[in-house]
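User: quick one
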Amino acid sequence: MIKVAIYEDNDGLREALGTAIEAAKDISLVGSYGHCVTVLDNTQKDKPDVVIMDIDMPGKSGIEGVRDLKKHFPATEIIMNTVFDDDDRIYQAITAGATGYMLKRNGLQELIAGIHEVMKGGAPMSPTIARKVMKAAANGDKGTSQNLGLSPRELEIIQLLAKGNSYKMVAQDLNLSIDTIRSHIKKTYEKLHVHSVTEAIHKVLIEKRH
Amino acid sequence: MIKVAIYEDNDGLREALGTAIEAAKDISLVGSYGHCVTVLDNTQKDKPDVVIMDIDMPGKSGIEGVRDLKKHFPATEIIMNTVFDDDDRIYQAITAGATGYMLKRNGLQELIAGIHEVMKGGAPMSPTIARKVMKAAANGDKGTSQNLGLSPRELEIIQLLAKGNSYKMVAQDLNLSIDTIRSHIKKTYEKLHVHSVTEAIHKVLIEKRH
DNA sequence: TACAAAATCACATCATTATGTAGGTTAAAG
DNA sequence: CTTTAACCTACATAATGATGTGATTTTGTA
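Assistant: Done. Structure below.
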């Protein structure tokens, strides 16, 4: 019997999920919550094998919930269940420790299948997601070894910014248009999964020392 | 005979400076230029004892000129001659290696006096400037020893920013208003003589390691 | 106590950055 | 010879950061 707990702030959807899970012969619902603020206490009590976690919830995001959960109950498998498929959330969810990432639009049947899959050691995810993850993994693997996957130009620009230069100064230094600088930085952010110069600098400089 | 070279992009002013300097019995003009791009070559040729340098010049700023000059000809004395008296330029000029900093509005006589003064080991500067420099020195001395003069709070905030946090995140972290963060950062910038987070981070982290 | 420095908050305004969209060039890889 | 990756440019809008001004409170110390 697979024990499953649900975290989903939408009441209707949470109930639907619950009944669908109960309907499965080999799965039992041990907990169902509208937020994940008390996720640690709940898990202590419920002892679920698998947790279905929505990303966007009031109070505490699913990402944070996953992070906490994995830290204290590393054996618990987590499947993110969300409407979002943007790179960022996926990346965050994966690095936070989720083993599955399924889109709500793909329906309940797939989610049930995902629960079984995750118990067999798999990593269930919607096709759309799978592709993104593969790509990210490819970038990541290539990158971490050398310079996080940044092209020489991109790295050069980040390093200039790290010295305290503004976009304008970098543009002048490299004899490029400021729009070009923007463009490079934009791609850099995507590769590093960040949203500001300081984050990018932090990431690049941290990875550098070793 | 004191050998002097002039770098000043305003033609009229450069000529006026030249004649005023030639008029002085113990000073000879060995070079006069409208820019400082070729300052190293010129200096090699002219071998001036003192260089009068304007700050704002096309191609290469006087600050950069001073930096280069001091690196290759440390014995050459440099007097900045400019219309600006804002803290920043003064600070930059001083740290770049200028030994005198005189305002154009104070006239040619004072500049001539400054040339003599600098040759006697002095540091000629207009009264307005002198006061600012004293203040900067006071701040600087107190600071360089520990953490550049930053208060504990200010340092804390810069370090949080260095980790890639935004103002908003820092405010949440420290349970403060975002305006308070702004306020601290503003003071920090004044103390460090910078104008952006990245510059501040760079400066703080550089000074830290040693 | 009275002054100075640190810390807090607010509001306004301008500058810079971040993000989206879109297109072009060039050089290596298949 | 086409595909891919890196590089370059442009324009528009939204979000964040930078700067100025002003004010209150606390704390350490002259």
